[in-house]
Amino acid sequence: MPAPAFTARLNEQIGNEFAASQQYIAVAVFYDNETLPRLASFFYAQALEERNHAMMMVQYLMDADEEAIIPAVAAPRVAFADIVEPVAIALAQEKRVTDQIGELAGIARDERDYPSEQFMQWFLKEQVEEVSTMKDLLTVVQRSAENPMLAEEHLAREAGEDEGADPTAPPVAGGAV
Description:
CATH superfamily: Ferritin, core subunit, four-helix bundle
Order of helices and strands: HHHHH
Helix content: over 70%
Number of strands: 0
CATH topology: Ferritin
Radius of gyration: 17 Å
Structural class: mainly alpha
Low-confidence stretches: none
Number of helices: 5
Strand content: under 5%
């Protein structure tokens, strides 16, 4: 069984992951309204990924016979000054989530909850990738601020580099979507 402190904090993180998903949907809608379909598509995909992270956490709690709490989340930010601001917000969000995931792993270790600590290892690795991706995208959109189509072209070139599903990822409650 997961340590009670870990379970409580993981339930909070479920809310954080759903909030991140909602924020990414808001960013995607912003880019869609700006007729920047590749940026929109990137963030729609990010929203699904964050939702799936929450659902992985839900599945872990269900598998451990613990209560999974699905909380309400605050409304996301929907207005942005330019094409750069949403990515800057996304990078800050990913850094915040990285800290949260690190805290969860630390709680599991401190509580000698080794299965939960092992569960968090995938998320730690994932956050390194997420921060790197957003940092790189921020650089691209900053350079493309005067000509957003350059960012679109960059994403078009990079689209073929997706490796597909990670076979080491934890299972998603309800199955992967």
